[in-house]
Automatic annotation (TrEMBL), chains A, B:
Coiled coil: none annotated. Gene3D superfamilies: HUPs. One of its GO terms (biological process) is tRNA wobble position uridine thiolation. InterPro entries: Ncs6/Tuc1/Ctu1, Rossmann-like_a/b/a_fold, TilS/TtcA_N, tRNA_thiolation_TtcA_Ctu1, TtuA-like_LIM_N. Residues 51-226 form the tRNA(Ile)-lysidine/2-thiocytidine synthase N-terminal domain. The keyword Glycosyltransferase does not apply. It comes from Staphylothermus hellenicus (strain DSM 12710 / JCM 10830 / BK20S6-10-b1 / P8). SUPFAM superfamilies: Adenine nucleotide alpha hydrolases-like (SSF52402). This is PP-loop domain protein.
């Protein structure tokens, strides 16, 4: 029976990437330390920060909520949770339920933005009416609403649950299509612009997806296991992730080694050429004259809904008793 | 029964990457045109050039010998074949036999360099005595001897049979280990330095390995199918190639698209920092004071054998009746 490398008690987890058997207590310590080190190494959260975490209800953001709530005291920051109800039927309802429970468990205030209340429609209708892939529309909507909310909350950063496997896959994909300029945008921290674009941080940048799953299991953390019914499992990204997992299995530590070297090299990649402008309709960040959110909503609903969404979010923040 | 897209006759080959059924004649034309376009696009061979092809006896270099011998007239260059007998038992003997036959078939003069005649030992002994992986020692030896021979022959370039899958795999591997400076060295043409370093060209840079196999089959081209008995099939490179093949199957054209975009981007990668010096013992190219060939032979045999190898090659070239 394998024993914990730290304390010698019965081990319950084997971390292949680190060739390490650990008991449940020291596994938790290992993962929490890793997230802490990621935060320190890349300067993700500073003392006194207001951090808004995008909480989908899936394992990554839920585990991140738990870990950040634990680290809150020692670093000294405020944690807020944001859940966007995307209006994807029962799937979205389940996620919203989980989000509420996580907020109670972690004792972090939760703001729910309900897409159907803001726009009258959910992601399925937006995708159908704009004839765009649901994942692409969903990405635009989530980025927009999270940023708008973070601006109103005067948050210092938006944290997301992207894990090591996600990031390595995205980077490989950009390399395969040779969008080198996109690679620096996949760093653990992306700076914002005062007043309208909040910095993005990824505290699980160096944590394996498998470890996140184990952490949730071992700590009986509730999350939505179900995949989004609109997700497309035929994409290059999806297949790349599978292949990367197989390579990692044969060459343990490959993924973390890759990502750490990549971050060290990040200055060697060509800088993104697109300057960040402000949408002429809603004032939010945009690469062109009009932001994607205003474009998509105009196409789907006949009217760009950026200003309305911002107004809606302002009211919610005003009404809530968040300090 | 599928028909040839060009002539309507019975097709014998399906090119998945181009969604194309072809008859044997038009398949040959397709492949030869592709190699011709690669040569033109990257300026690999110019009129009047003397091209030395490294002929191992495997499918890639053998097929390249056939195609280059066909293109010889229209471009107007001279083709020489070089085979290095690496002293790996029966495997090497088989390869040497094939090389001789290919030389007859293609009507291109062949020079055989026999490692056991030059050094008294083959790759297995060199690897054992230096405690280096055989593939690494073999790479050093082949590069050294081919370049030394090309210098004596006053060749304009050394052609090798590296195919599209090889190159894409090597590049992916350098990306995963983040040796970005190595990526420009994997371009279709690497310039030489007058008098001691001959340019390297890869005319099969845009040709899929599978197509090369089919070309050999359809044209009854003899080659050694056996893998080198010293080859290591547990390396990252070996696994990456398998994964890339699987991705290509799902996303036909992925590999060629990747490699073409990469070559277009090549200026965006950091330049290799190492300057090419000359070995203080033999005068051949080296990144340090002493070249790898002199180092390896000194370690294995007690004496750096660069000068002797060069002398040996000079004599062979003087004795041969190559113009």
């Amino acid at each position: 029976m394998p024993k914990c490398r730290i304390c010698g008690r019965k081990a319950v987890v084997y971390l292949r990437h680190s060739r390490l058997w650990l008991c449940s207590e020291h596994f938790n310590e290992f993962i929490e330390n890793r997230v802490m080190r990621t935060i320190k190494r890349y300067n993700l959260i500073r003392k006194g920060d207001r951090v808004l975490l995008g909480l989908s209800g899936g394992k990554d953001s839920v585990v991140l909520a738990h870990i950040l709530s634990k680290l809150r005291e020692s670093i000294g920051f405020k944690l807020y949770l944001a859940h966007i109800n995307l209006g994807i039927g029962e799937y979205s309802e389940k996620n919203a339920e989980v989000a509420k429970k996580i907020s109670e468990k972690t004792n972090a205030p939760l703001i729910i933005l309900d897409l159907r209340k803001i726009l009258g429609v959910g992601i399925p209708e937006l995708a159908l009416k704009t004839r765009r892939p649901p994942c692409s529309v969903c990405g635009v909507v989530k980025r927009y609403l999270l940023n708008a909310l973070a601006v109103e909350l005067k948050a210092n950063s938006i944290a997301t649950g992207h894990n090591l496997d996600d990031m390595a896959t995205f980077i490989l994909k950009e390399f395969l299509v040779q969008n080198l300029e996109q690679i620096p945008k996949l760093a653990p921290r992306i700076e914002g612009v005062k007043d309208y674009l909040v910095a993005k941080i990824k505290p699980l940048y160096e944590t394996y997806e498998e470890d996140i799953k184990k952490y949730a299991e071992l700590n009986n953390i509730l999350y939505v296991e179900e995949k989004c019914p609109l997700a497309d499992e035929t994409t290059l990204t999806w297949h790349l992730k599978k292949h990367l997992r197989d390579l990692e299995y044969r060459f343990p530590g490959l993924t973390i080694g890759f990502i750490r070297r990549l971050v060290k090299n990040i200055e060697k990649y060509p800088k993104p050429g697109d300057t960040i402008r402000r949408c002429s309709i809603c004032g939010m960040p945009s690469s062109g004259k009009i932001c994607s959110f205003c474009k998509i909503t105009e196409k789907a609903l006949g009217k760009p809904m950026g200003p309305h969404a911002r107004e809606y979010i302002k009211e919610i923040v005003d009404k809530s008793i968040i300090d």
